[in-house]
Amino acid sequence: MTSTMQINARTIPTKHHSIPSNEWRTRVDLAAAYRLTALFGWDDLVFTHISARVPGTHDFLINPYGMMFEEITASSLIKIDLAGNKLEPSPHEINPAGFTIHSAVHEARSDAGCVWHTHSINGLAVSAQAEGLLPLTQTSLFVLASLAYHDYEGLAVNEEEKPRLVRDLGDKSVMMLRNHGLLTVGKTIADAFVAMYQAESACMAQVRPQAGGGMLTRIPQAILDDIGRQARITTREMNMDALVWPGLLRRLDRRMPGYEL
Q: How far apart are CA 134 and CA 154, in angstroms?
């Protein structure tokens, strides 16, 4: 049997012509999500994960454990069910902690088209702060409008943690896993990406002024309460698939091509 360490994306033949078009589109976007994670510097070697629901099913796609994020292709992604069973042949295994977190959210949230989890440095830093994310920047307001917290219980390999994780997440789109990192949920992969981009940016914009040691100015609650309405105006109520995702794919095509294989 070929070991995970001997496999890379170039050894995996494309599955494009053997997979339904709607699943293939999801695979391409999810592979792009992994490449974007590497491009933005949010990856943690091979130890975080992004999942996407296979359209029309309860199954989901996740990364092959041991493959660097900049290597992942549409064909290398692994399809599993909610019990963690691989639904197609793959020389790779999956990250057990990835399965615990992602299966819990996909099973509980019918709107969870994508679940994105990172151990980014800024997200980790703020997740260790007792007050969590503070209303210090405009970007932080987008996150605070739909933010949950989950206390650290060790590596996420315990099935008994799943109901507590789901309970704490509720209907929010961002969750700070205390002492652990960030998690976002989106109806689409683009939605989950934008939520993660905003969460990581807000965390970065918090730790930098804190390092300066000066007094910080918090944004009033009244402004936070109105941020949803203001955001709808600035985006012209366009979804992220139309507004942001096409440009991100063009950036990947220039800098890190091959995800669509």
A: 25
Instruction: Spell 176-201 as b/e; 16+ CB within 10 A means b.
Output: bbbebbbbbbbbbbbbbbbbbbbbbb
DSSP label at residue 155: S
Q: What is the pTM of this model?
A: 0.91
226 to 47, 66, 199, 229: CA distances (angstroms): 37, 44, 19, 6
pLDDT one-digit tens code per residue, 37-56: 999 999 999 999 999 999 99
The alpha carbon of residue 183 and the mean position of all alpha carbons in its chain are separated, in whole angstroms, by: 6
Distance CA 54, CA 235 (A): 28
β-bridge mates for residue 170, sequence order: none
DSSP state of 241: H
Surface-to-core class of residue 5, CB atoms within 10 Å of its CB (0-12 exposed, 13-18 middle, 19+ buried)? exposed
pLDDT tens digits, residue range 66-111? Answer: 999 999 999 999 999 998 899 988 888 888 877 889 999 999 999 9
Residue 144 tokens read as: 């605070």
Least confident of 27-31, 118-122, 200-204, 233-237: 233-237
Please provide the average confidence, as pLDDT, over all residues in the chain: 91
Report the C-alpha gap between 84 and 226 in whole angstroms. Answer: 41
User: Are 50 and 117 a contacting pair, CB within 8 Å?
Assistant: yes
The dihedral formed by the CA atoms of 192, 64, 100 and 175, expressed in degrees to the nearest 10 = -20
Q: Count the Cβ atoms, other than its own, within 10 Å of residue 132.
A: 15
